[in-house]
Specification:
The complex is a heterodimer.
Chain A: E1 8-11, H1 15-21, E2 27-30, H2 36-41, E3 49-52, E4 62-65, E5 68-72, H3 77-82, H4 84-89, H5 91-98, H6 103-108, H7 111-117, H8 123-130, E6 134-139, E7 142-147, E8 152-154, E9 157-158, E10 165-172, E11 177-185, E12 192-203, E13 206-215, H9 225-231, H10 238-251, H11 262-283
Parallel strand pairs in A: 1-3, 2-3
Antiparallel strand pairs in A: 4-5, 5-10, 6-7, 6-10, 8-9, 11-12, 12-13
Helix pairs in contact in A: 5-8, 9-10, 10-11
Chain B: E1 3-9, E2 12-18, H1 24-31, E3 50-53, E4 56-59, E5 72-74, H2 87-94, H3 104-117, H4 123-129, H5 140-152
Parallel strand pairs in B: 1-5
Antiparallel strand pairs in B: 1-2, 3-4, 3-5
Helix pairs in contact in B: 2-5, 3-5
Classes of the chains: A alpha+beta, B alpha+beta.
Chain lengths: 288, 162
């Protein structure tokens, strides 16, 4: 039987209330709870106080605003999966959400919770890194923004400090953009053996900008930066995509574990990166 | 340290003084004595503990009872109405949808939710809906048939959802 340590519990009634509760040391936010509560049951997390933010409806939204897709931290995985708006501009999120856990877990787990858990095998962290998203963090003095590519300091560690709360993710919308996410897992609902997300901004057949996110393979900040540099300015064709896949595979740092040996994971990175780029290119131009 | 946690379960009001760390599945089973919901893997994989919190199914081993304070819970005991089985329950009887029965309460709660939102799901949609649940007897074929039976017999066995 898995039992969390003793913990106090408070419900936040507003963002300001949440921030004041979060000023206490050893305090954690709980929303969907589907990452934190399992960690607490294993005693890998032993907070003294839980701040329940499920009542903060103002953090549960998905909207298009000023050329940015805005996703509230309290949006559930199922909300992002079902969002026509997000699906139209960033099919990468729909691709990724389809393979996050299972339908029941997706009803409760939140977008913000996934990012803040900072699991090195998490899917949305790679998707948001590929899309060059920005995290909006509420602070006691107001708010600050941090690129998602700088949000994670390492496994299970983020830039969120004491008294702070992740409020939303903003993703810039650019015309001519296509995106896709490709994942291999051992069984339905499992964590990735490896996964790759691609966001391509095309001018005709030329790549203007490329975003490549990788998860579960030790890529720094979930990004395949060398492959992005390679793609910029090149033709959006099979040759470029295959070469980018090989570069991504060479620069990531997977470890052998029960999900597979290192060479297998590198092989997956090359293949999944290439496939994600191919699908992203096919989708570019069909977005609004 | 304890806190007061009150909720409606299958239409009945309950309140208990419990530790904030108590999981919802244990509140339901041990505090309220409603043992229809099963406590299985304890890791939100198997789904035998699925109940509804307000209108959505949840794996109750991965939620604190405190988080359900003030909300409405529905368990497998709440499927039957006035001695009349829900079509999902009848379907599991008709199609031999259970062997050992351990996964059954969770399967049924998810099935009821699926049918409320998609009254006529095909086999693939049913399999997707229960993909977060494990039947260790591997009786999936009959579980899928049972849920299809419930969809096809909704009219004869009106199982209202709330």
């Amino acid at each position: 039987m898995q039992v969390p340590s003793q913990v106090e519990y408070e419900r936040a009634t507003s963002v300001e209330h949440a921030l004041s509760l979060l000023s206490r040391p050893e305090t954690r936010v709980v929303a969907g709870g589907h990452s934190l509560i399992p960690m607490m049951k294993l005693r890998l997390a032993q907070p003294e106080l839980l701040v329940d933010i499920n009542g903060l409806a103002e953090l549960a939204f998905i909207a298009l605003d000023g050329g940015q897709l805005r996703i509230g931290a309290l949006a559930r995985h199922a909300d992002l999966l079902d969002s026509d708006l997000a699906g139209r501009y960033f099919p990468i999120f729909r691709d990724a959400e389809r393979v996050v856990a299972d339908p029941i877990v997706r009803l409760w787990g939140t977008v913000g919770g996934s990012l803040c858990q900072a699991d090195p095998s998490e899917d949305l962290s790679a998707a948001f890194a590929a899309a060059r998203a920005t995290a909006v963090i509420k602070t006691p003095d107001g708010e600050r923004t941090v690129p998602v590519r700088e949000f994670h300091l390492g496994p299970y560690e983020t830039v969120i400090g004491r008294g702070e709360l992740l409020a939303e993710i903003r993703v810039p919308v650019r015309p001519g953009t296509g995106s896709a996410y490709e994942k291999v897992s051992r069984r339905v609902g499992d964590w990735s053996v490896a996964a790759a997300g691609a966001v391509l901004c095309l001018a005709g057949q030329q790549i203007q900008e490329a975003g490549l996110g990788l998860t579960a393979v030790g890529a720094e900040h979930f990004v395949a930066a060398e492959a992005e540099d390679f793609l910029r300015g090149r033709a959006a064709d099979e040759e470029s995509f295959a070469a980018a896949g090989a570069i991504a595979a060479g620069h990531c740092d997977p470890v052998a574990d029960q999900r597979g040996p290192e060479d297998f994971k590198r092989h997956l990175v090359a293949e999944l990166t290439t496939r994600a780029l191919r699908r992203a290119a096919a989708r570019a131009g069909s977005a609004g | 340290m304890t806190i007061r946690v009150a909720m409606t379960v299958n239409g009945t009001e309950y309140a208990r003084e419990v530790e904030p760390r108590l999981l919802l599945i244990h509140y339901i089973r041990d505090e309220l004595g409603l043992t229809g919901s099963h406590w299985g893997c304890d890791t939100s994989n198997c789904g035998s503990c699925v109940v509804w919190l307000d209108a959505k199914p949840v794996k109750s081993c991965t939620l604190l009872a405190a988080m359900a304070d003030g909300h409405a819970v529905r368990t497998v005991e709440g499927l039957e109405r006035d001695g009349r089985l829900d079509p999902v329950q009848q379907g599991f009887i008709e199609c031999h949808g259970l062997q050992c029965g351990f996964c059954t309460p969770g399967m049924m709660m998810t099935a009821r939710w699926l049918l409320d939102h998609h009254p006529d799901p095909d086999e693939a949609e049913i399999r997707e809906a229960i993909s977060g649940q494990i039947c260790r007897c591997t009786g999936y074929e009959n579980i899928v048939r049972s849920i299809r039976w419930a969809a096809e017999h909704a009219a004869e066995h009106p199982g209202e959802s709330t």
